[in-house]
Amino acid sequence: MIPTIHNVKHTPPSGLAGDAGTTSVVWVEARHFFSREDARQNGWLWLLGDDGCVQALRLNAERLGDDRLVQTLRAQAGLTTRATRISEDGGMASLAQAPVVPTPQWTVSWGHPLQHAIRAFAARLDVRILDVLGWLEAPGGFLGTVQNYNRLAVLAEPVRQHRLQALLRFPALVTPLLLAVGNHPEMWGRDASAQPEASCQARASAAAVLDAMDRGRDLTGALATHHRISRALVRSPLLGKPWRAGRVSVEVLRLIDAITPEARPQNPADVEDRLDALAQLPVHQRNETAKAHLAGAFANGWNLIWTQLEACAPYRLHQAWRDCTDFLRAALRDGALPGELRNLDEASLGLAWIARRGLLSLLRASLRWHARPLVQVVIEDDLPDTLPALLGELTFAKDGSAQELASREAVIAEGQRMRHCVGSYWEYCVLEGMRIFHLVDANANTATAAFAQSGPAPTLGFSLEQLNGPSNQAVGAPLKTLAQRVLAALNDDALRQARRDASEEAFRQAEHEAARRENRPVMAQPTLDRSLRRELRLVLDWSIRQAHWLIGPRRLYAGHIAGFNYTEGPHLRQQLAMGDSLILVREPDNPHDERAVRIDWQGHKLGYIPRAENAEIARRLDAGDAMAACITLVRSESARWAEVLVDVWMAA
Question: Which domains can be identified in the chain, with CATH numbers?
Fold first, then answer.
């Protein structure tokens, strides 16, 4: 049920008493939150200030009930601005992501004095804010935090009322502009850098939306302009309901907007359940024409198309789409492309196939190709053949063993042994820092685990990207447990510097041009049969007739941004959007590369054109030739290097 917001005036507390029996203070012992012995040395305090804002603190257990501490906190001006000072006070930490009202274990009975104190404390909060935060997180996520409550409680009327109404009317679009969306409460305050932040934080690009919201003006139009979508989509049922993630990516919004209204999804779950698969579609929406072709693939209905695709895939759909890139790469290599399509890459071929024959045809073609016999194929790249191992071989007494695959040869052999496409993942290992392990559980069941880099350089870690058995079959609980053991070992604090060193070294090796060797390594891949070649020819013949958008101006580079994780890039990721223009800046005095070409976005440095790709671009910039560049893909949910892609081409 959508909560009703009554236009009532909220009066903040007139004062703050020092003992725990008042309604402005709640003390909580560790036993009411945690059963672990190591938690018993801690206590928690919730405090309601004169400004109507809440502060949650973790402190040493011996300070529970300390009225002098409460008086000290009262004397500090502005509960919402003193988190740093409190965190530095020995034994205390400010908890911005804690629940705005403490929620003890169910074993604390309703009549317990602690429950009385909590109810009295909650009664002094603004019920409108509590109701809205609770409604927004109903499908999932966690929004009822101290930080989010204070962001709204500190506002004067009628601005507070307008923002609450905007959250109820357009939750999917307004929530990321006003609130921080987390996955769970944070009760320890050990890692302030891990706390989520609202994506705008008064960003200039959202100023027009906030102004329209606060003045009660045309918010529909402001949101449409801000996200570059139609007013009809802004007002649609899809965006009038909360989303589990609290937000919708701009790329997904614009794709849905390009679908005819009668074919669009109506419920957030219809989209969110397919986001992983959607992110792996082997296409880039580089321009409006490309977006229109992809949207046209859903003309028969969003849910109908996805249902057909899900029924076709023998294993997880997002993995099937990821494997499709390997099929398209093989089609480009073996398909005898006509000269008119010399600039065609796998993403463009994937889009052409979808536009000509549909999503289902492409998926089926990829599955047929993967089922064909393997043949030896020469690899033509200059990537290093080994990487420094982080863990090597691991043995867990009860769970099994894990072998890190830190060479091209080992990765190729794994693909042949397990009959899936991990053999072609060496590029991901080198350019994106992926780590691949062969797992064997206690019952001799086997699986391949791929761990992707996660997080910015200072806190670089890993997340489990894929876990597949032979022929991409699903794995059982023992192998899942074993994969989690390996993940914990990879993310151990003792390996933090080793992770960073290995990542930087692998990236530097990939950036250098290497001399081509006479005997290139080989890997096993399927070949195109007669049926696949016939389908490919139909797509290529159609593509030639669409040359104005498949070829376009001469492209000089398409790919990732070198050094993205070591610049302002990770902090700007939420603001980057597909189609954003970029500026290329020559750095002839760069001490690491005299051909360096820097990539800037709105005055911010994102990184560089990779060293192995920058020679012609640098030469043309030095000669004064006109070039253009733009962002072609942003997957804001991921921290991997290659998830922000750019194109550089000769300007007309």
Answer: 25-188+197-209 (no CATH), 393-511 (no CATH), 553-650 (3.30.70.2330)
